[in-house]
Amino acid sequence: MTGAQHGYEAVIGLEVHVELATATKMFCGCRNEFGAEPNTNVCPVCLGLPGSLPVLNEAAVDYALRFGAALGFDVPPESVFARKNYFYPDMPKDYQISQYELPICTDGHLDVDGVRIGIERAHLEEDTGKTQHAGETGRIHGAEHSLVDYNRAGVPLMEIVSRPDIRSAEQARAYVAELRGVLSALGVSDVKMEEGSMRVDANVSVRPTGSEVLGTKVEVKNMNSLRSLARAVEHEIQRQVGVVESGGTIVQETRHWDEEAGVTHSMRTKEGSEDYRYFPEPDLVPVAPDDAMRARAASAVPELPAAHRERLVREWGIAAHDARVLVDDRELVAYAEAAVAAGAPGRDVANWCTGEILGHLNETGGSASTLVLAPDGLAELIELVTDGSLSRKLAKEVLAECLREPRRPRQVVEERGLAQVSDEAELAAVVERVLAEHPADVEAYRSGDDKSRKKKRGFFMGELMKATRGSGNPKLLNRLLDEHLG
Amino acid sequence: MSAPVGPTAGTPGETARAIAAAVRRGDRRARDVVEEALARIAEGDPEVHAFLLVTADAARTAADAVDAAVRDGRDPGPLAGVPIAVKDNLCTRGVPTTCASRILDGWRPPYSATVIERVHAAGGVVVGKTNLDEFAMGSSTENSAFGPTRNPLDRSRVPGGSSGGSAAAVAAGFVPLALGSDTGGSIRQPASLCGVVGVKPTYGRVSRYGLVAFASSLDQVGPLAATVDDAALLLEAVGGPDPADSTSIPEPFPSLDPDDPGSSPEDLSGLRVGIVTELTHAPGVQPEVVAAVLRAAEVLEERGASVREASVPSAGLGLSAYYLIAPAEASSNLARYDGVRYGHRAAAGEITEMYGRTRAEGFGAEVKRRIMLGTYALSAGYYDAYYGTAQKVRTLVGRDFAAAYGEVDALLAPTSPTVAFALGERTEDLLAMYLSDVCTIPSNLAGHPAISVPAGTGEGGLPVGVQVLAPAMGEPVMFRVARAVEAGIAAAAAAEVVTP
Q1: Which member of B2, B101, B140, B186 is catalytic?
Q2: Contact A282 B110 (CB under 8 A)
Q3: With bands split at pLDDT 50, 70 and 90, how would you rate the model's confidence at A270?
Q4: Residue of A nearest to B98 (CA)
Q5: CA B58, B60, B64 angle in degrees (round to 5)?
Q6: Could you report the predicted ipTM of this complex, rounded to two decimals?
């Protein structure tokens, strides 16, 4: 931890906004989808037209309750929507329906690499539209004109507010990664930081190591990947330590992370907190989840990533790192588990999945669910290797072909005659023939020193492979070679 | 059924129920009924200015559809062919909806309010949009950006407000029915000042979807009519649950038929009625108004009800609480009029300036005053003292009503402390203007139903209304008592004429 080197400790709290993957928006029946033509998924309600009224999407409540059940939150008998009042053109009503004093989930936690990070609250609110500003500044002030797309207005958001329990940029990254895994496992959000379905703001302050007093906090915005989050937080810690070291004071403000320049810029100074004039939303009634809703939420919680990783390590005997790589990709781990279910050993499946298959996915940008090779096809491939009928080297070629087009491994092996020959009599005949064809080399081998013997041995193996078109069982050929060379 | 009491001026002499019955039977053509209403409006409205817009063509088309249904043997519904005026803060698809404000200049809603859809579904014919105080903020309809409405009974006086256009349209006999909205008395007070019936239903009884919000936790849509029975007819047609309004009451709307068991307005034996002491004997209530309440009480006693004084101690505090809660909600509800998406937009080089100029030009003085008041009341550091305290008073008013309803089934109170006042009389004296609603506000705070029924005349021979109040969901008992008051007052008036 760089801050600690200077005798300072960072105190970090994260506000994470996730768009919930409900079919429709938070308060109307418009479709909740990313990337539609601007202003096509809109209606009087999400456009905030005069006279329109919100009606709560129960699926959003279910999702929040599921999240609450997963991370040990309290769900009070009633939570209340409130209006957060401020003017901005991408907000149709010039207030945002959110939750303030009484959020739906309070006091949960998430364990990250053995450290418990407290989560103060999770609440429901509606997203805003998107604004594009034409002009040099790229911001509303100084824009020639601005274009607003209200497709995103009213999309359900859950805001997850951690306690200031995070102490480093790496821990901040790990917390968000773990949170993302949980949300993904719960199926409540797409959690794509690049598309903005997961957005993270960091509150960062520093203090001398050992101090109990909190320093002045700075809010850092505009990080669009885990990497950028870690960079931005690290930069902000360094910046604050630098300010304090040189005798300056930290100003409470919001800073904008500039990914290209790798620095934060001041956006606006906060003199105290902004006055949003919150008050209870009179157009909605309190949310009072009954026992049935709570039970439904609890039973919808699947195995969470931490437990999942532990199980794979235990049952498959794989390394913790490989378990993390697998579980971080929900589709890949589902694929792997299906292959195991088809009879393949977990360790072999994990090797192939974190190796060739993940490499293929990274290269093609695809996801495991779209692989043309079904999981039981991978199991078939592994079986061919295990029973000695296919060499590991050729197995890679077979897999590559099966990932390119819809073929079964056994079919490829048969068509291309790749099956490993393990028939001892057949191979012994080949060895005899090859040695007979190269009497001078045999002689050289027998009279040579260790170094030249090794070299000749490599030559014989190469000739043997040529003669068997690569399908000879190498282990067997080695033994036969020993026997025939004496 | 009680004898209908017609409005005092320009009456077409026909109730909505009678019109609908005749149209459904095929005895009258809806088109003829609507043409007559349009003719009355064309002739009389230049003097009254009840309407901001007369939708004559759409009304004719709707009337023809009703007639076609009758010809085809289909029932057009309980409002068949009845001309209805609609307050211009109710959204009408494709038809300008102004809220009597310049800020909504040019806006045509792409959808209709639930109550409008229900009027259409019941065969009613919307003939136009009526004047109001801008965004329903006012008690005289003088805060309209398009000029005031005049009281048809005395054109030097106001019709009350904010549903002044709707009340005047019924009182002038232009239409038998109108829809208004009531946030602190905006249906009942103009009904009282114009000598017609006005109903604020239980909060949640009538959908607010498509009613342009003033103060969301207080707003209710309700009917204005010449008779209690006609008010019931319209309320039954538009009331009931609406999935588009989360605050809508899920139970079906109750029957208001006087022939239902236990609903007779003739025999009130066993019914307990209280006169709200704090409202009836409040300072500023004209003696004739107090007399009207007592006259209504007598009428009820004659029909077998027991009447007593009843106390709602916090009722008088309602006004102060209302003038914090309503502006607070309004300051938020009216934020969206920013020039970005619809309505008026001022020319400006920069967004903050555009917001400021748009709102400065688009809103009138009273709206601006309330937005500022509400913004202040919600501000950090003041919230608890103002909005928070007001909410406590609101809770208290509800409790006091609940206690009173432990003793009685319905309450009587004045509607307006005074008869209709002169145009301009209170525009410079805001407190006097605000006090117009002192007797009506408590029902909005409690979310309870209340109806104003004409109960004689006061100063200058102008009409005086009395309110019948009932607990939440108490529309059936409220209408029973209101029908009794209406019939009893009519009978007494007839007797006076016979024996001078």
Answers
A1: B186
A2: no
A3: low
A4: A50
A5: 115
A6: 0.95
